[in-house]
Amino acid sequence: MADKLNYAVLEKSGYDGYILKKAPVKVLQFGEGNFLRAFVDYWFDMANEKVGWNGKVALVQPIAQGLTQFVNDQEGLYTLYLRGSENGEKINRKRVISVVDACYNPYDAADWEKIKAIAASDDLEYVASNTTEAGIVYDPESTKDQLPPTSFPAKLTVLLYERFKAGKKGVVILSCELIDDNGKELQKCVNKHIDDWGLGEEFKKWVNEENLFCSTLVDRIVPGRIRDPKEVAALTEENGYDDPLLDVGEVFGVWYIEGPAWLEEKLPFKASGLNVHVVPEVAPYKKRKVRILNGAHTGFVLGAYLAGQDIVRDCMHNETIHSFMNKMLYEEVIPILPLDKDDCDAFAAAVTDRFNNPFVDHLLMSISLNSTSKWKARNMPSFLEYIEKFGKLPAALTMSLAAYIAFYSSNIVRREEDGLICVRPKGNEYKVQDDAWVLDFYYDHKDADDATLVHDVLTNEKMWDQDLTKIAGLEETVLKDLALIRTEGAEAAYKSVL
Predict the structure, then answer these.
(1) Closest alpha carbon to 357 in 255, 216, 236, 222
(2) Disulfide-capable partner of 49 in 18, 200, 364, 392 (CB 3.0 to 4.6 Å)?
(3) What is the pTM of this model?
(4) What angle do CA 189, 190, 194 make, to 5 degrees?
(5) Domain made up of 284-496: CATH architecture
């Protein structure tokens, strides 16, 4: 049986990649899970190698159960594989990450004292977090005297107070939670705790003027664990060590950090040539991600499934479906985005590589969940803005709307508690999953003719917040597109708009 990864075992294994054993702790990170270790810790580890940043990250276990013991047993080391496709080439990069100093469990009194000491140290420069979407919430039950305070914002308030009392300069706080304005929302919670706990105006002024709360947008798919025992065994033998913390992410990764211009020079990423960008505002980049990456998924997968496809990667090898996606992105979505066209084109090109990831079998049916609200959030804004800008219907997005209706109404056979059972043209049953009222709507229309169905979908203001039949020519075009999907098949329908 192989020894568990640590510095001595790594040296014996013959690994010849970059490793930094000792350095001051410059980052306090809330979260020790797969995403942060494949994302934030990867960037700082690369900065150590590329520009000699010479820093370590101290991890804080955010909840009572976590990975502290595993991380410390391995002296902070873990193996990261970045896998995917770049310019059509299959990529599988291995790197042992050595940026982590140690992990601490704040629910252990001794560890909480160590965390407070790190918070008040001269070396600390950054706080990073990914405590899930539920992590940045104001919890009135959290108090400064709890060991530790229950919520993440409350913990952070206590640690900032320790730093303030020690007379130290402020830090840069990088929030990676998947909520809008994550940094601003965290700052609001901290200020509320300061008021509730009576920590004083001087401390409040220091928090808001000497510290920088950055909203950020993170983008990297991190599957995390390898679940195939045979592959795990093969990698253990190949590496010469056992690594329960082994992590897997896609090759593509980008980090947008909202902040002033000076922050780009302070952070060690630009000089390292990394795909991390300090921008005045994150919102446009989030719009780009939602409209291009997420919008592409929702825009083509429903019709692609009806055309007989099952996973995203295979769709990228189907000339018609891939061309349909590209027409939608390059001709209908990108022209109405408020960002540099070349940047958007490059992002869209990367989408093809990401969808073509040879290591990830991304099922179309998993993407299809809740497609009504997804189409409304991801595709409808591009659809409406295109019409407003160009005065005509966007052919691919309009066909996508027809494909959505076709997917939800293909030979409906029954309504089950958690879904609507339909039959696709190749004969197998599939389950449409969405809000109950959406499924009830389509089940109630299972015997309706397509003209009635299209009219009732487009006029359903609960679905779209408006009556879409008021858009000139839309009802007729969607009905024509739906008829083509029903009679000739979705692939032929997609081809008709190219």
Answers:
(1) 222
(2) 18
(3) 0.85
(4) 120
(5) Orthogonal Bundle (1.10)
Torsion of CA 350, 284, 62, 135, to 10 degrees: -130
Question: Tokens representing 398?
Answer: 């309009």
Mean pLDDT in the chain? 95
pLDDT in tens, 103-136: 999 999 999 999 999 999 999 999 999 987 778 9
Give the three-class secondary structure for 90: strand
Residue where the block lists tokens 């000139």? 472
- Token output for 134: 């539920």
Residue closest to 276 by CA, chosen among 444, 47, 18: 47
355: left (phi over 0), alpha (psi -120 to 50) or beta: alpha
Beta bridge partners of 465: none
Q: Distances from the Cα of 237 to the Cαs of 71, 93, 233, 241, 246, in angstroms?
A: 21, 17, 6, 7, 14
Laid out side by side, the sheet with 89-97 consists of 89-97, 78-86, 247-250
Tally of CB atoms within 10 A around 279: 16
Strand 419-423 and strand 414-416: pairing? antiparallel
Q: Are strands 254-258 and 89-97 parallel, antiparallel or unpaired?
A: unpaired
CATH 3.40.710.10 is held by the domain 7-280: no
For the chain, give every domain's residue range: 7-280, 284-496
* Contact by Cβ (8 Å): 136, 185: yes
